[in-house]
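hi! just following up on the protien thing from before. the input was this:
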Amino acid sequence: MSVLTLRLAGPLQSWGATARFARRTTESAPTKSGVIGLLAAAAGIDRQDEAGLRPLAALRFGVRIDQPGTRIRDFHSAHHGDTGKSMPLSERFYLADAVFVAAVEGEAQLLHRLHAALRDPVYAPFLGRRSCPPAQPVELRVREDADLHRALAAEPWQASLWYRGRHREATVRLDVLREASGGAEGEPGDVQRDQPLSFSPAQRRYALRTVVTTTVDVPHPGVPQQRHDPFEALEEESP
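and the predicted 3d structure came back as:
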Protein backbone atom coordinates (compact mmCIF):
# COMPACT_ATOMS: atom_id res chain seq x y z
CA MET A 1 0.00 0.00 0.00
CA SER A 2 0.92 3.66 -0.37
CA VAL A 3 -0.11 6.77 1.56
CA LEU A 4 -0.93 10.30 0.38
CA THR A 5 -0.32 12.95 3.04
CA LEU A 6 -1.89 16.43 3.21
CA ARG A 7 -1.20 19.52 5.28
CA LEU A 8 -4.45 21.16 6.42
CA ALA A 9 -3.80 24.66 7.78
CA GLY A 10 -5.66 27.94 7.55
CA PRO A 11 -7.07 30.80 9.63
CA LEU A 12 -10.32 28.84 10.13
CA GLN A 13 -11.40 25.22 9.71
CA SER A 14 -14.69 23.51 10.48
CA TRP A 15 -15.24 19.75 10.34
CA GLY A 16 -18.80 18.83 11.25
CA ALA A 17 -19.80 15.19 11.68
CA THR A 18 -23.13 15.70 13.42
CA ALA A 19 -23.90 19.35 12.59
CA ARG A 20 -27.52 19.95 11.69
CA PHE A 21 -29.95 22.84 11.28
CA ALA A 22 -29.16 26.02 13.23
CA ARG A 23 -26.24 24.65 15.27
CA ARG A 24 -23.22 23.78 13.09
CA THR A 25 -20.54 22.31 15.34
CA THR A 26 -17.01 21.20 14.48
CA GLU A 27 -15.01 18.15 15.51
CA SER A 28 -11.56 18.70 17.03
CA ALA A 29 -9.90 17.21 13.91
CA PRO A 30 -10.76 16.79 10.22
CA THR A 31 -13.40 14.18 9.42
CA LYS A 32 -13.02 11.48 6.79
CA SER A 33 -16.05 12.78 4.89
CA GLY A 34 -14.57 16.29 4.82
CA VAL A 35 -11.17 15.20 3.50
CA ILE A 36 -12.62 12.73 0.97
CA GLY A 37 -14.91 15.55 -0.19
CA LEU A 38 -11.86 17.78 -0.66
CA LEU A 39 -10.12 15.10 -2.76
CA ALA A 40 -13.26 14.42 -4.81
CA ALA A 41 -13.69 18.13 -5.54
CA ALA A 42 -10.05 18.42 -6.64
CA ALA A 43 -10.54 15.43 -8.97
CA GLY A 44 -13.74 16.91 -10.40
CA ILE A 45 -16.05 14.12 -9.18
CA ASP A 46 -19.64 15.34 -9.27
CA ARG A 47 -21.67 15.27 -6.04
CA GLN A 48 -24.21 12.97 -7.69
CA ASP A 49 -21.54 10.50 -8.86
CA GLU A 50 -21.68 7.74 -6.22
CA ALA A 51 -19.69 5.33 -8.44
CA GLY A 52 -16.89 7.87 -8.79
CA LEU A 53 -16.88 8.53 -5.05
CA ARG A 54 -16.69 4.83 -4.07
CA PRO A 55 -12.91 4.25 -4.63
CA LEU A 56 -12.07 7.38 -2.61
CA ALA A 57 -14.41 6.43 0.23
CA ALA A 58 -12.69 3.02 0.41
CA LEU A 59 -9.33 4.65 1.24
CA ARG A 60 -8.20 4.19 4.85
CA PHE A 61 -8.04 7.55 6.64
CA GLY A 62 -5.99 9.00 9.48
CA VAL A 63 -5.12 12.43 10.83
CA ARG A 64 -2.38 13.80 13.09
CA ILE A 65 -3.02 16.84 15.29
CA ASP A 66 0.06 19.03 14.88
CA GLN A 67 -1.49 22.22 16.31
CA PRO A 68 -4.94 21.84 17.89
CA GLY A 69 -6.07 25.45 17.47
CA THR A 70 -8.80 27.27 19.37
CA ARG A 71 -12.53 26.58 19.08
CA ILE A 72 -14.53 29.75 18.35
CA ARG A 73 -18.26 30.46 17.95
CA ASP A 74 -19.89 32.66 15.32
CA PHE A 75 -23.42 33.97 15.73
CA HIS A 76 -24.67 33.88 12.16
CA SER A 77 -27.43 36.02 10.67
CA ALA A 78 -28.36 36.54 7.01
CA HIS A 79 -31.02 37.97 4.73
CA HIS A 80 -32.26 36.59 1.44
CA GLY A 81 -30.48 38.34 -1.43
CA ASP A 82 -33.65 38.92 -3.48
CA THR A 83 -36.51 39.25 -1.00
CA GLY A 84 -34.62 40.70 1.98
CA LYS A 85 -36.37 38.21 4.22
CA SER A 86 -34.48 37.21 7.39
CA MET A 87 -32.95 33.73 7.27
CA PRO A 88 -32.90 31.52 10.40
CA LEU A 89 -30.32 32.56 13.00
CA SER A 90 -27.61 29.98 13.52
CA GLU A 91 -24.50 29.21 15.58
CA ARG A 92 -21.40 28.12 13.68
CA PHE A 93 -18.25 26.79 15.31
CA TYR A 94 -14.72 26.85 13.90
CA LEU A 95 -11.15 25.87 14.77
CA ALA A 96 -8.82 28.90 14.56
CA ASP A 97 -5.07 28.55 13.81
CA ALA A 98 -5.15 24.75 13.71
CA VAL A 99 -2.76 22.57 11.70
CA PHE A 100 -3.27 18.90 10.83
CA VAL A 101 -1.56 16.24 8.74
CA ALA A 102 -4.20 14.06 7.10
CA ALA A 103 -3.40 10.83 5.25
CA VAL A 104 -5.22 8.32 3.06
CA GLU A 105 -3.92 4.80 2.43
CA GLY A 106 -4.62 2.84 -0.74
CA GLU A 107 -3.37 1.80 -4.16
CA ALA A 108 -0.48 3.92 -5.45
CA GLN A 109 -2.04 4.60 -8.86
CA LEU A 110 -5.14 6.21 -7.36
CA LEU A 111 -3.12 8.21 -4.84
CA HIS A 112 -0.82 9.60 -7.54
CA ARG A 113 -3.90 10.69 -9.52
CA LEU A 114 -5.29 12.46 -6.46
CA HIS A 115 -1.91 14.07 -5.75
CA ALA A 116 -1.84 15.44 -9.31
CA ALA A 117 -5.45 16.63 -8.95
CA LEU A 118 -4.58 18.59 -5.80
CA ARG A 119 -1.87 20.42 -7.76
CA ASP A 120 -4.35 21.33 -10.51
CA PRO A 121 -7.79 21.07 -8.87
CA VAL A 122 -11.06 21.21 -10.79
CA TYR A 123 -12.74 22.83 -7.78
CA ALA A 124 -10.78 24.82 -5.19
CA PRO A 125 -10.16 22.94 -1.92
CA PHE A 126 -11.60 24.21 1.38
CA LEU A 127 -11.19 23.11 4.99
CA GLY A 128 -14.63 21.78 5.88
CA ARG A 129 -16.61 24.83 4.70
CA ARG A 130 -16.30 26.98 1.60
CA SER A 131 -15.58 29.99 3.82
CA CYS A 132 -12.41 28.25 5.12
CA PRO A 133 -9.69 28.30 2.42
CA PRO A 134 -6.31 26.66 3.12
CA ALA A 135 -3.37 28.95 3.84
CA GLN A 136 -1.14 27.15 1.31
CA PRO A 137 -1.20 24.12 -1.03
CA VAL A 138 -2.48 21.09 0.87
CA GLU A 139 -0.61 18.27 -0.88
CA LEU A 140 2.58 16.99 0.75
CA ARG A 141 3.68 13.71 -0.89
CA VAL A 142 2.89 10.09 -1.79
CA ARG A 143 4.83 7.59 0.31
CA GLU A 144 5.28 4.24 -1.43
CA ASP A 145 5.15 0.93 0.46
CA ALA A 146 4.00 2.59 3.67
CA ASP A 147 1.10 2.16 6.04
CA LEU A 148 -1.02 4.86 7.60
CA HIS A 149 0.68 4.94 11.02
CA ARG A 150 4.25 4.91 9.69
CA ALA A 151 3.47 7.62 7.15
CA LEU A 152 1.98 9.90 9.81
CA ALA A 153 4.96 9.24 12.09
CA ALA A 154 7.46 10.01 9.32
CA GLU A 155 5.97 13.36 8.30
CA PRO A 156 7.86 16.38 9.77
CA TRP A 157 6.05 18.49 12.38
CA GLN A 158 3.93 21.03 10.46
CA ALA A 159 2.99 23.41 13.31
CA SER A 160 3.51 27.17 12.93
CA LEU A 161 6.78 28.72 14.14
CA TRP A 162 5.06 30.60 16.98
CA TYR A 163 3.47 27.37 18.23
CA ARG A 164 6.75 25.42 18.01
CA GLY A 165 8.34 28.10 20.17
CA ARG A 166 6.16 26.99 23.07
CA HIS A 167 7.88 23.58 23.13
CA ARG A 168 11.46 23.00 24.30
CA GLU A 169 11.71 19.23 24.05
CA ALA A 170 13.74 17.55 21.30
CA THR A 171 10.69 15.49 20.33
CA VAL A 172 6.97 16.22 20.55
CA ARG A 173 4.20 13.69 21.10
CA LEU A 174 1.23 14.19 18.75
CA ASP A 175 -2.20 12.58 18.82
CA VAL A 176 -3.22 10.44 15.85
CA LEU A 177 -6.81 9.50 15.00
CA ARG A 178 -6.75 6.65 12.51
CA GLU A 179 -9.27 4.33 11.01
CA ALA A 180 -9.20 0.85 12.53
CA SER A 181 -7.66 -1.73 10.22
CA GLY A 182 -10.03 -4.35 8.89
CA GLY A 183 -8.07 -7.25 10.36
CA ALA A 184 -7.77 -5.84 13.86
CA GLU A 185 -10.78 -7.44 15.52
CA GLY A 186 -11.46 -6.02 18.92
CA GLU A 187 -9.23 -2.99 18.37
CA PRO A 188 -10.67 -0.42 20.81
CA GLY A 189 -11.93 2.82 19.34
CA ASP A 190 -14.73 5.33 19.06
CA VAL A 191 -17.51 5.14 16.51
CA GLN A 192 -18.00 8.14 14.22
CA ARG A 193 -20.58 8.66 11.46
CA ASP A 194 -18.39 10.22 8.77
CA GLN A 195 -17.85 7.37 6.29
CA PRO A 196 -19.19 8.98 3.06
CA LEU A 197 -21.70 7.04 0.94
CA SER A 198 -23.19 9.90 -1.07
CA PHE A 199 -22.58 13.66 -1.29
CA SER A 200 -25.77 14.24 -3.29
CA PRO A 201 -27.47 17.41 -1.94
CA ALA A 202 -30.81 15.60 -2.17
CA GLN A 203 -29.70 12.66 -0.02
CA ARG A 204 -26.38 12.89 1.78
CA ARG A 205 -25.58 9.59 3.44
CA TYR A 206 -22.83 8.55 5.87
CA ALA A 207 -22.00 5.26 7.56
CA LEU A 208 -20.28 4.47 10.86
CA ARG A 209 -16.57 3.74 11.14
CA THR A 210 -14.23 2.98 14.06
CA VAL A 211 -11.60 5.56 14.98
CA VAL A 212 -8.55 4.51 17.05
CA THR A 213 -6.57 7.12 19.02
CA THR A 214 -2.79 6.67 19.32
CA THR A 215 0.29 8.92 19.48
CA VAL A 216 3.52 9.38 17.55
CA ASP A 217 6.77 11.10 18.52
CA VAL A 218 8.29 13.43 15.91
CA PRO A 219 11.48 15.54 16.09
CA HIS A 220 11.24 19.22 16.98
CA PRO A 221 13.06 20.96 14.10
CA GLY A 222 14.02 23.90 16.30
CA VAL A 223 15.71 21.90 19.08
CA PRO A 224 19.00 20.00 18.56
CA GLN A 225 18.47 16.26 18.81
CA GLN A 226 20.48 14.89 21.75
CA ARG A 227 22.70 11.89 21.06
CA HIS A 228 22.46 9.22 23.75
CA ASP A 229 25.49 6.94 24.11
CA PRO A 230 25.62 5.08 27.48
CA PHE A 231 29.22 3.94 26.83
CA GLU A 232 30.46 7.53 27.04
CA ALA A 233 29.93 7.46 30.84
CA LEU A 234 31.82 4.14 31.13
CA GLU A 235 34.75 5.54 29.18
CA GLU A 236 34.92 8.61 31.43
CA GLU A 237 35.05 6.42 34.58
CA SER A 238 37.67 4.03 33.21
CA PRO A 239 41.27 4.52 34.62
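The beta strands are 2-13, 23-24, 60-67, 70-76, 90-106, 139-143, 171-179, 190-198, 205-219.
Residues 32-43 form the longest helix (12 residues).
cheers
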